[in-house]
Design brief:
Blueprint (H helix, E strand, L loop, with lengths): L38 E4 L2 E4 L11 H7 L12 E2 H5 L2 E2 L2 E6 L2 E4 L11 H6 L3 E2 L1 H7 L2 H7 L4 E7 L8 H10 L11 H11 L2 H8 L6 H8 L5 E2 L16 E3 L2 E3 L3 E3 L5 H4 L3 H11 L3 E4 L7 H4 L9 E5 L4 H5 L1 H9 L4 E7 L9 H15 L17 H9 L5 E6 L2 H9 L4 E4 L13 H14 L7 E5 L5 H9 L4 E4 L1 H33 L12 E2 L13 H6 L12
Parallel strand pairs: 3-8, 5-7, 12-13, 12-19, 13-14, 14-15, 15-16, 16-17, 17-18, 18-19
Antiparallel strand pairs: 1-2, 4-5, 5-6, 6-8, 9-20, 10-11
The structure holds protoporphyrin IX containing FE and flavin mononucleotide (FMN).
Protoporphyrin IX containing FE binds next to helix 3, helix 4 and helix 5.
């Protein structure tokens, strides 16, 4: 399957016309609830609502063929849609993936993403939802865990539900990109144009979200000490630096995360293109929704990328050599970042609540019990040592959270660490990475190891000033996660590029005002970080706070 952007130039417009032309949807509603009706304009066609998936473009079937789908099946063999739909409970759950019907009842409690995402598509065609989070590789690797029932006969009649209709309409009138001035502006648009379940998956953190909030607020505890009257021409400001030996034009990178295709159909490809445009590093996620065969043909050989990887099963640790050999052959990959804060999945309570609510509604049951804990395999310093010895690729760790571990990593030949708590999605009350950075720099200096390892950090970075503060405290570079998802949600690749442009200008502006010409000249003398560890009252950050979603309490039933 080729998802090359050139094949679908209109996708760049940010309007997801094609998403409603496929038959493979996760929301098969045989009747349109509520009878919404309004005029909608698509190119030269004007349609009057309620929209049916597949109804849209005159060339719908040709389009579907491009996606490797066929709308009609005239054979009498296979399993009917009605039959599939009757297997929609936790005790008897079938789903359809690419016209193959699977019984996933046994798999429900083994699914690393939990029971509820599967129950959301119980008795339905799960192809689209699956492809938004997984690549075809995931299915191939795990097929033996699913029970193949047979081929689907016919097609699901899919209508857009009310939320989807509202979103499609909103997407035709998102604010012009020129009116997006900050990363928070992107977030406000994303909150409107993403389904609630998706926004909740992106935005929320674990438990009471103290870490999620502190990640960001830590930056507000550091102030600048500008140097005045410097002999610097405005155009002399240079934001370039080097990451793991490769030159990049910005000290920021797009982090590796799941779910890009939930934000936009071209997900990670948008990020790759925008990162290349700015010569900014892209960390390619393990959970890339494109398989390597779909993803890498579009990647120029001089792009700067790294690979993020985590282990879902022990087998993957034992077979890590294969991964390393593959990565060694990829010219763009400058390092591999292994997650080290995944001894268990974080308690993402808000996300789970939202999913369970959705799922229970869809499945017509009161509640769903989700088992997500205790699924990750043991991954130790011993494994890390073996990996370092067995590859020529620089090995790095993502998710380090204390100075002692940074020192240990440097001693064991690790080339870089990302000080990260996975954006507040793992252990709540983990400290903000900015604090860990200050601690780590000090401990590396004490151990004379500061030249041995590069320090990166991510979590809560929303302004150029945040970036500059982290660099002053000794970070080589900083990663961003959610802002890229939000930018893509409203505007696809253009949004991702605009986001980088905003940060670049903010960084340059901060450097000019600080009296600093080059990234390597930023140091601790430019900041006052005395308050960094004082997690005491703070001034409200209005933009950040207004986008924040509070945790909700259980609701009474409507009888
Ligand atoms: C039946 C076939 C499926 C298989 C074999 C499968 C496999 C997996 C695997 C291996 C992961 C862990 C990924 C990682 O941590 O690297 C995962 C996570 C996940 N899956 Fe699935 N999955 C399936 C179906 C689905 C469907 C149909 C949905 C959505 C409706 C879904 C949604 C998710 C989500 C939301 C996550 C968690 C992502 C995260 O928190 O990072 N999965 N799945
Ligand atoms: C929706 C979502 C999914 C994520 N998935 C992963 C993942 O699969 N692997 C990983 O290492 N980090 C993952 N992350 C964490 C990011 O890589 C990054 O550490 C974090 O988002 C940085 O915080 P920020 O979002 O505040 O910028 C995910 C983050 C989000 C928001």
């Amino acid at each position: 399957m080729n998802y090359s952007k050139n094949a679908f130039p209109f996708i760049k417009s940010g309007i997801w016309r094609h998403t409603i032309t496929t038959k493979n949807s996760s929301t098969p509603k045989l009747v349109q609830k509520g009878g919404h009706s309004f005029f909608r304009k698509f190119g030269t066609q004007i349609k009057k609502g309620p929209l049916r998936r597949g109804q849209l473009l005159a060339s719908g079937s040709a389009f579907a063929t491009l996606f490797g789908l066929s709308f009609f099946d005239f054979s009498n063999h296979g399993i009917t849609v009605k039959e599939v739909m009757s297997h929609n409970s936790p005790k008897d759950c079938w789903i359809v993936l690419n016209d193959d019907v699977y019984d996933v009842t046994e798999f429900l409690n083994k699914h690393p993403g939990g029971v509820s995402p599967l129950m959301e598509v119980a008795g339905k065609d799960a192809t689209l939802k699956f492809s938004q989070v997984h690549s075809t590789t995931t299915l191939e690797k795990m097929k033996e865990q699913l029970v193949f029932v047979g081929k689907l006969r016919g097609k699901f009649e899919n209508f857009l539900n009310e939320e989807e209709l509202r979103i499609e309409e909103l997407k035709t009138r998102v604010p012009p990109l020129e009116t997006i001035f900050s990363l928070s502006d992107f977030e406000s648009v994303a909150k409107e144009v993403l389904p609630k379940t998706t926004f909740t998956f992106f935005a929320t953190g674990s438990a009471d979200e103290f870490t999620l909030r502190e990640n960001h607020y830590a930056y507000s505890r550091v102030f600048f000490k500008p140097r005045v009257l410097q002999d610097i021409e405005p155009e002399e400001i240079d934001t370039s630096t080097s990451f793991l030996g490769s030159k990049v034009d910005l000290p920021i990178y797009v982090s590796g995360f799941a779910g890009s295709r939930l934000a936009h159909p071209l997900g990670e490809k948008n990020l790759q293109a925008a990162a290349y445009k700015y010569n900014m590093m892209q960390m390619v996620p393990k959970q890339n929704s494109f398989s390597p065969e779909e993803f890498y043909p579009d990647v120029p050989s001089n792009q700067v990328q790294t690979q993020q990887f985590h282990f879902n099963e022990r087998r993957e640790i034992d077979e890590v050599d294969k991964l390393l050999r593959d990565l060694e052959k990829r010219p763009t990959i400058k390092g591999v970042f292994f997650n080290v804060d995944l001894a268990d999945i974080g308690n993402r309570e808000k996300d789970n609540k939202q999913r369970i609510k959705n799922t229970a509604e869809n499945a017509g049951v009161d509640s769903i019990v989700d088992h997500r804990y205790g699924q990750y395999p043991k991954f130790t310093w011993g494994d890390v040592e073996k990996i370092v010895k067995s590859t020529s690729i620089p090995v790095a760790l993502k998710g380090v959270q204390r100075g002692e571990d940074v020192v240990l990593a440097a001693k064991k030949g690790i080339k870089a660490v990302v000080l990260s708590n996975t954006g507040g999605r793992q252990l709540d009350y983990s400290r903000p990475p900015l604090e860990v950075l200050a601690e780590s720099r000090k401990m590396l200096k004490e151990n004379k190891l500061e030249e041995k390892i590069e320090l990166y950090l991510d979590g809560g970075i929303r302004r150029g000033s945040d970036v500059v503060k982290a660099l002053c405290l000794g970070a080589k570079g900083v990663g961003l996660g959610r802002p890229f998802l939000y930018a893509m949600a409203g505007y696809g690749e253009d949004g991702a590029s605009h986001l980088i442009g905003i940060l670049k200008e903010e960084i340059k502006n901060n450097m000019r005002l600080l009296g600093v010409k080059r990234i390597e000249d930023l140091n601790e003398s430019f900041i006052d970080a005395k308050g960094l560890n004082l997690r005491t009252p703070r001034a409200n950050d209005v933009l950040y706070d207004s986008a924040y979603m509070p945790l909700s309490f259980p609701e009474f039933k409507n009888l």
